[in-house]
Each structure stands twice: as structure tokens, then as C-alpha cells.
Design goal:
The complex is a heterodimer of chains A (529) and B (338). Chain A is mostly helical. Chain A has 3 domains: 30-188, no CATH class; 210-290 and 442-529, no CATH class; 297-429, no CATH class. Chain A is built from 22 helices and no strands. Chain A has helices spanning 6-21, 27-41, 44-77, 84-132, 149-164, 174-182, 195-203, 210-243, 251-281, 299-305, 308-323, 326-339, 341-364, 368-386, 388-397, 399-403, 405-428, 431-441, 447-451, 462-484, 487-492, 495-512. The relative contact order of chain A is 0.10. Chain B is α/β, with parallel strands linked by helices. Chain B has one domain (33-152, 179-336): SGNH hydrolase (Rossmann fold), CATH 3.40.50.1110. Chain B is built from 15 helices and 5 strands. Chain B has helices at 2-26, 38-41, 57-60, 65-72, 86-99, 120-127, 134-143, 150-154, 157-160, 169-173, 212-228, 248-260, 272-275, 292-309, 319-336; strands at residues 51-55, 76-80, 104-108, 231-236, 264-267. In chain B, helix 12 links the parallel strand 4 (231-236) and strand 5. Chain B is globular, with a radius of gyration of 21 Å. The chains are: A mainly alpha (529), B alpha/beta (338). The A-B interface holds A 6, 210, 461, 463-464, 467, 495-496, 499-500, 502-503, 506-507, 510-519 and B 1, 3-4, 7-8, 10-12, 14-15, 18-19, 22, 26, 120, 147-149, 151-152, 157-159, 161-162, 164-166.
Chain lengths: 529, 338
């Protein structure tokens, strides 16, 4: 059930109605039932996998928690008799045991994800390899990829690690825990929530608030505007450019980079707006996933603002743990002696970054293009960091330049283009092809053709481009305004203006949205991850 | 809070009005495909007809109510549209009985060859201009192809919004009033494109059984006519093309059905000489459909049948009806002789 389908809108209306009609203590049960109904629409067989994650994670969290209680009880009972060293040693032994329990949970769930998502990729690579020696390859299995499996697996494994770290108390009610795993709006494309933020909110009673409900609906409408008016309209031209890459080289690649940046931003942030809006209408606050990423002046900043919940997940559960593993600590120590502390900590950080970005790429998809995409991001960040002292010197020399709007704009455009370039790996889905397209871009071939009407031969008319440009201008203006204060909060003080703007937005979605027969109903791009 | 509710209600009303206006603008005006306007034109003439024709292009290109009136004094209307399927004819007839009770209902049987929904474009041409009623609701449900959505029929803006970037002057000109295209449901074609090659037989089919999905609606039509005291007459209009081939096996099934149910059935394909149809002058598309000259002959011939076999010989009409028909006949000849 796509967010953009009539079926989903009807489902949401009914759910919202029931949610506020039932007694408050039953609201979370309504959500749980709704989430499973939503998930069942993706295929009844998908339910097996989400149930597996729920049951296994629940069991592991309970076992882990039990172990923690036991540890604490033992320490409390033997406070007097145990020395500090003995207590430390006991803690370490107990932590090891706990880790083994956690490991079972992680292996089981990441195992399922790995098998379903990466088997075909692995077999393909093995076939290529054995093919070099003339051997016949294996047949590539076609496995079911349950909707949102990457998202709910990561969210749930994050929870398990938090329980292991005793950062959160586990949810004892299995049904309530099932809701945390399956909360339907974020199943499709995130955000990847933390139990400490979401767990209690989901099951707490929520009184109807006109303001929260209106804000939620506004956010949903805003999401549909981005998705249907901008993203799905751009998609038509993207499909043309990608269907015949041989035909669209040179300057067309530059055009593709810009169009895809617009499309993925509108698509992904639009989907997240709908997700957050739905939750908000129910009185539930989800974590923000974007903070005006295209205003970023550096790659590092960009990744702090784009897909925030994924970035923090990888930082907290991959990057930081890797950085403090025993081999890393040893390396750090060994290098510090020879090359100094700064070089040692940088080396450790780079290695941990490399692994993190490799996994980030892999998370996005089972393909070399995604892996190269992740590693390229890592390389750009590393190079930027290495050049930081040079930049600083330059900026110190020209302090007024740094504060000028022109230079700020230049840095943002530079970051936008650089990230767009790397992101095009996602479009062509083939590393060799992408590199050759980048090479062709340097020739600027086709620029004249684009400017003399070639742009209107991509499936979009001049009117379509005007709609896209107007849409982008509106999104840009709102983004600028929201940098200082929430636009919705401002509008709330002026209900007439708010009503007029929302009305216009609704009319724009219905009239200018790219949906229905004649448009290929496109999934949200991040559904695929 | 009260203020916010009032603002919200006002905004909602304004949005609905604005979208209604946009919808009127973007729905197709069928200037190049006037078949899409035929069904909607009925309502301004609904009521008091002696005969109602239902069916596909073969009725709205073969029977001219103005000629039937002028030559035989029979008041009639053609409720036909492009590729009008059997169930669409049924629901249009059901709707017609809400407005009037004709003595005779004439159904062209060609549509019986289709047992399942065929094409969105033709569905739209038949159903979009039909007024909302339980008949339309059922007609839409029965007609939708897999890609179609019921909500798109309720709110056509959801289907046609993409035309917003493709509007023409006609979309503004006919935003509230559709262009009048027919003469009591007859769509005039004056071109002459003669038949160049006589067809002997159609392409072989795997199965010649007329689909149940269509025959069931023929049953329903028969029952509907019986309930309303109207006589159902089955006809097959003359044609000579591969695309519209009427197989002997189909003819046999309809003939048997007619006999079993004591209905009249006239197949005019083999009567063209008797009717006087000349495929070198009386067709506008090389034998597929009749042009106005062929349709005049067909109508006159059928008028005699209606009078002789179906009790429509001594009809009397009120002055208002006569006056209205005189105007229609004049309008018809004005366009014919233009």
C-alpha cells in the first residue's frame, strides 16, 4: 500500500478516526492492529519476517535484561565482600556473557537481512569470479525482500544494543514491543527511531489536540506536495535519461545530477514529511531526518543534515564501537608512540569510517555501485578533513570572505554538486558506466542541444519544467523561512493565512501532482533500501 | 477555537469550489471525438419518445431520429456511444426508464461480442457525461478495466488533472456548456469514403460462443423492458468490415435467443440491397459505418418495420412535441445541406 495510493489515504482516515474514538488505553492496540494490517498489504508472507524479528528481539532483550538484573543483584549483595578489582572482573565476565546473548540476536536478525538482501549479489559476484576460470556459475535465487526490512531490522537491533548497554529498560509487554518494531508510518522509509524516543510515546494515551492534528495534516500535505508535484514529475525525465545512457552523455549527465538531486530530495523528504505528519496527527513525535541538507557547506555537514537517523545509527552502533575495539585501541597505542597522538587517532577514525561507510553503502543496496558510493563519501570526508588546516589558513587570511553570502552560496553549491555527482552512482547502478558518464561530462557535449530545446525531449514539456521550478522555489522558500522559526508555528498565529496557504497547497497537489493513469506510479525511492 | 473552525470551514468550501472549477476546465471537451458528448445530450430531450435505440456506434451512425419523425411520425432517441458495451446499454436503458417509457427499445447486438471491460477511453466517453444515479454507479463498477479506479469517476479531476498543462481555447469556451454535437443522439457524418474491397468472411475465431457476461445483460434488458411494458427489438446494423464482422455463429445464437424469448430480431447485413445501401456512396469509412446518406435509407427502411410489425403506425403527439420535432428536423437538414 503506497503512501500515494487512494487505498492508503482511506486506510489512514479510518485509522485516525478509530484512534481517537477508542478509549485512550486502547489507542496503542489500534496502532498495532493498523500497523499489521498495513504490513499485510505488502504480502502476508512478509509478516513472517517482521514477526521473527519481533519475537527474537523480544526474547533477546528479556534475556539481556535478566542478565543485567542478575549482575546488579550480585554486585549489590556482595558490595562489602568484593574488592573494586573483583567487582570489575565480575562485571567484565558478565558483560561478555551478555554480549553473547546480544550476538545471537544480532546474528539472527542481520543474518535474515543479509540472506534476503545480499544472496543474489553474493552469488552474482561468485559467478563472475568462477566465470574467470571458465566454470559455470550458480543459479541466482530470487528471494522475497520484505518491505522496510532494512529499516525495522536496524531500529530493532539498535534497541537490542541499547538494552545490552543498559541505556534503556526493555519493553516487557510483547505486544507493545511489537508496535515499536512495526509502527506503520516509519516502516516504509524510516526515520530509524530510538526506543528511548519512541517506545513510551507509542503506548501512552494521546488526547486529541486540534493543533497537533492540524500540524500533522499540514505536514502530510507538504509531503505529498514534494512527492507528487516535484519528485514524480522529475521522474519522467529521469527515466528517459537513464533508459538510454548512450544517448544522453556529456552535459546531459550534469542535468541528470541536478534533476536526481531534486527528485531524491523531494521524494525522500516528502515521504518523511508524510511519516512524521501521520505520527504527529496521532500525538506522536518522531525524530527529524533532515535539516536543510542542501544548505550544507561541506560533505561532513551534509551528512549531519541528510538522513540524520541513519547517520546517527551508524555512528552510535558501528563507528564508535569499532573505534574502541581492542585491535583499534592497540593500533592507536602503537601508532601514537611512532607518529604521534593526532596521526594515531586519525588513522583509527579513518579505518572506522571506512568500515562504517562501506556498511552504509551496503545498507543502501546490494550492488557495487552502493559500496563505491559509500567509500567515495568516506574518501571525500577524509580528504576534506585532511585539507582542513589548509582551508583554515585560507579562511583566516580572508575573514570577510567566509562571512559573505556569495562564498557561503558557492560552498553550498559545490557541496550540492559533489554529493550529486557521487549520488549518480545510485542512478546508473553500474560503477563502470557511472565513471564513463562522469568522464563524458567533462566534454560538455550536448549543452547546446539541451539549451536549444533538447531538455523538452525528455518527456517533460516546458509547462512541466515551470511546475517543477515553481515547486522547487516554494520548497526553497519554506526551507529558508524554517531556518529561523517553524513555519507552521508562525502560521498558527495567523489562521487565515494558514488556511489560504494550505488550501492552495491542496489544490496544487490535486492539480499539478504527477499521479494516476499516464504516470508510472513510482514507489518512494527509499522504500527500496 | 470557534474562529479557527469557521476559517477551516470557509477554506474547505473555497477549496471545493476552486477544485470544481479546475475540474470543469480539465475534463475533456471531446471536440475532436464528439462521441464522448452523446450520452450527456440525452437529458435535454429526455421524455416522451416512442422508440429508444441503445447500442454502440452502429446505432448512432445508422438511425436518424429526425428522419424517423419526418417520414414515419415516430419520436425517437439514440442512446448510443462509442464501443458501448452490453452492460452500459443496459444501465443507460435503466436510467432512461427513469425519464420515460418508450413503446419500443431497439438494441444493436454487436456489443454482445464483448464479455469483459475493454478500454478506459471508451468507458469514459460513455460514462463521464452520464448523470449520477444508481444506474451510473453500477455502470461504472461493471465497466472499469483493471487500471481504472472508481474514485476517478467520482472526481474526474483525479483522472484528468494532467491536462492542466495541455489546455486549449476550447477547454475555456466549453467549460460550463458542452458543444452540441448530435441530432437526438445521431452523429452526422457527411464524408463519402467508398468500400473498395468486398469482404467475404471474418477472421477465424477460437470460440464463437457469445460471452456470458454480455448475454446476461441481454437477459436483464429483456426483463427490464418487460417490467416497464416496452417491447425489446434486436437488430444488427449493416456493415462490411473485418473489424466489425458479424459471424454466422453469433447470428445463430442471437436468433435462437430471440426465438426462445419471443423477441423480434432483424439482421440488416444481408438486406443492404433491399434497403438501397450502396457501399460506394453510403459509408464514410470504407464500409465500417454508414454515412448520413446510408443512415437515411436505413432509418426509412426500419421506420416501415416499426410501423408494420411493432404497432407504431398510428401515433399521435401533442402540439409541443410536434413543434419540437419540427425544429429538430430543420436543424438536421440545415447541417446536412450545409
Amino acid at each position: 500500500m503506497l503512501f500515494t495510493s487512494y487505498g492508503f489515504i482511506a486506510f489512514l482516515c479510518i485509522l485516525l478516526l478509530v484512534y481517537y474514538i477508542v478509549p485512550k488505553k486502547l489507542q496503542w492496540i489500534t496502532l498495532l492492529v493498523g500497523s499489521y494490517v498495513f504490513y499485510a498489504f505488502a504480502g502476508l508472507e512478509c509478516l513472517v519476517f517482521i514477526l521473527f524479528t519481533t519475537v527474537s528481539a523480544y526474547a533477546i532483550s528479556m534475556l539481556t535484561h535478566k542478565a543485567i538484573i542478575k549482575e546488579n543483584a550480585y554486585i549489590d549483595a556482595n558490595k562489602e565482600s568484593l574488592s573494586k578489582e573483583e567487582r570489575k572482573a565480575y562485571r567484565a565476565r558478565a558483560k561478555k556473557k551478555r554480549f553473547r546473548i546480544l550476538l545471537v540476536g544480532l546474528v539472527l536478525n542481520f543474518g535474515v537481512l543479509a540472506v534476503l538482501k545480499y544472496t543474489a549479489f553474493a552469488v552474482n559476484n561468485v559467478n563472475t569470479l568462477v566465470g574467470l576460470f571458465g566454470a559455470e556459475g550458480f543459479s541466482i535465487p530470487s528471494l522475497l525482500l520484505p518491505m522496510g526490512i532494512s529499516f525495522y531490522t536496524f531500529q530493532t537491533m539498535g534497541y537490542l544494543i541499547d538494552v545490552y548497554r543498559a541505556k534503556v529498560e526493555p519493553e516487557k509487554n510483547p505486544a507493545k514491543f511489537a508496535l515499536f518494531v512495526s509502527f506503520f508510518p516509519q516502516l516504509v522509509q524510516g526515520p530509524i527511531s530510538r526506543f528511548s524516543d519512541l517506545g513510551k510515546q507509542l503506548t501512552a494515551p494521546h488526547k486529541f489536540s486540534g493543533k497537533a492534528f492540524t500540524f500533522g495534516l499540514q505536514r502530510i500535505l507538504w509531503g505529498y506536495f514534494k512527492k507528487l508535484v516535484i519528485a514524480d514529475r522529475v521522474l519522467v525525465a529521469m527515466n528517459t535519461l537513464l533508459d538510454s545512457p548512450d544517448e544522453y552523455k556529456g552535459a546531459y549527465v550534469l542535468l541528470l545530477i541536478i534533476l536526481y538531486s531534486v527528485q531524491i530530495y523531494a521524494d525522500f523528504t516528502g515521504g518523511i514529511d508524510i511519516t512524521i505528519g501521520i505520527a504527529e496527527a496521532m500525538g506522536i513525535k518522531l525524530a527529524e531526518n533532515f535539516d536543510r541538507p542542501f544548505s550544507s557547506r561541506s560533505t561532513k555537514e551534509y551528512w549531519r543534515r541528510w538522513h540524520i537517523t541513519m547517520g546517527t545509527w551508524f555512528k552510535d552502533y558501528i563507528f564508535l564501537p569499532i573505534s574502541v575495539t581492542r585491535p583499534m585501541m592497540k593500533l592507536n597505542k602503537a601508532m601514537a608512540g611512532k607518529f604521534g597522538r593526532v596521526a594515531a587517532s586519525k588513522t583509527v577514525a579513518y579505518i572506522a569510517s571506512g568500515v562504517t561507510w562501506f556498511l552504509t553503502g551496503l545498507w543502501h543496496g546490494a550492488g557495487w555501485n552502493f559500496i563505491v558510493w559509500g567509500l567515495l563519501n568516506c574518501l571525500i570526508i577524509m580528504v576534506s578533513e585532511s585539507l582542513e588546516p589548509t582551508y583554515k589558513k585560507f579562511h583566516d587570511k580572508f575573514p570577510r570572505l567566509m562571512s559573505s553570502a556569495f562564498y557561503g552560496g558557492f560552498m553550498s553549491v559545490r557541496t550540492f554538486m559533489l554529493m550529486g555527482l557521487v549520488r549518480s552512482l545510485d542512478c546508473y547502478r553500474n560503477v563502470g558506466l557511472t565513471f564513463s558518464m562522469w568522464g563524458s561530462m567533462l566534454t560538455f557535449k550536448g549543452m547546446g542541444e539541451i539549451l536549444s530545446g533538447g531538455i523538452f525531449k525528455l518527456g517533460l514539456t516546458a509547462a512541466d519544467f515551470i511546475i517543477i521550478l515553481c515547486g522547487v522555489a516554494v520548497v526553497f522558500a519554506v526551507s529558508k523561512l524554517s531556518a529561523r522559526q517553524s513555519v507552521r508555528e508562525r502560521l498558527y498565529q495567523r489562521p487565515v493565512v494558514s488556511a489560504v496557504l494550505c488550501g492552495l497547497l491542496f489544490i496544487a497537489v490535486i492539480t499539478f501532482g504527477a499521479y494516476g493513469v499516464g504516470y508510472d506510479a513510482s514507489q518512494f525511492i527509499y522504500n527500496q533500501f | 477555537m470557534k474562529k479557527r473552525i469557521i476559517i477551516g470551514v470557509c477554506a474547505t468550501v473555497a477549496v471545493i469550489l476552486a477544485l470544481t472549477l479546475v475540474q470543469a476546465l480539465v475534463v475533456p471537451k471531446y471536440i475532436d471525438n464528439p462521441e464522448g458528448l452523446l450520452v450527456g445530450e440525452y437529458y435535454s430531450e429526455a421524455g416522451g419518445h416512442d422508440v429508444i435505440f441503445v447500442g454502440d456506434c452502429e446505432v448512432y451512425e445508422s438511425f436518424i431520429p429526425a428522419v424517423l419523425w419526418e417520414k414515419h411520425g415516430i419520436s425517437s432517441y439514440v442512446r448510443g456511444s462509442a464501443q458501448q458495451l452490453a452492460w452500459q446499454s443496459y444501465y443507460l436503458l435503466e436510467e432512461t426508464f427513469e425519464y420515460e417509457t418508450p413503446q419500443v427499445v431497439v438494441f444493436n447486438v454487436l456489443a454482445l461480442k464483448y464479455g469483459t471491460p475493454q478500454s478506459e477511453a471508451f468507458n469514459r466517453m460513455t460514462l463521464d457525461s452520464m448523470k449520477w444515479s444508481s444506474s451510473k454507479l453500477e455502470a461504472v463498477k461493471a465497466s472499469m478495466t483493471e487500471e481504472e479506479n472508481f474514485l476517478d469517476y467520482v472526481f474526474p479531476i483525479l483522472r484528468f488533472h494532467s491536462r492542466i498543462t495541455d489546455l486549449s481555447g476550447d477547454d475555456f469556451k466549453y467549460i460550463f456548456n458542452a458543444k452540441k454535437v448530435s441530432h437526438s443522439g445521431y452523429l452526422m457524418q457527411k464524408n463519402i469514403v467508398p468500400l473498395t474491397e468486398e469482404m467475404d468472411e471474418g477472421r477465424n475465431l477460437r470460440d464463437y460462443t457469445l460471452p456470458e457476461g454480455a448475454m446476461d445483460y441481454l437477459d436483464k434488458m429483456k426483463e427490464l423492458c418487460e417490467e416497464n411494458g416496452s417491447e425489446l427489438v434486436l437488430i444488427k446494423s449493416p456493415t462490411n468490415s473485418w473489424a466489425y464482422w458479424w459471424y454466422d455463429e453469433w447470428d445463430e445464437q442471437v436468433r435462437e435467443y430471440a426465438e426462445e424469448n419471443e423477441l423480434a430480431y432483424y439482421n440488416f447485413i444481408d438486406k443492404t440491397e433491399e434497403i438501397g445501401i450502396d457501399y460506394s456512396t453510403d459509408t464514410y469509412d470504407a464500409g465500417v459505418h454508414l454515412n448520413v446518406y446510408g443512415a437515411e435509407k436505413m432509418t426509412d427502411y426500419f421506420g416501415n418495420i416499426l410501423k408494420e410489425n411493432h404497432g407504431l403506425s398510428d401515433l399521435t403527439h401533442g402540439d409541443a412535441v410536434v413543434a419540437a420535432w419540427e425544429t429538430r428536423v430543420k436543424e438536421y437538414y440545415d447541417e446536412r445541406n450545409e
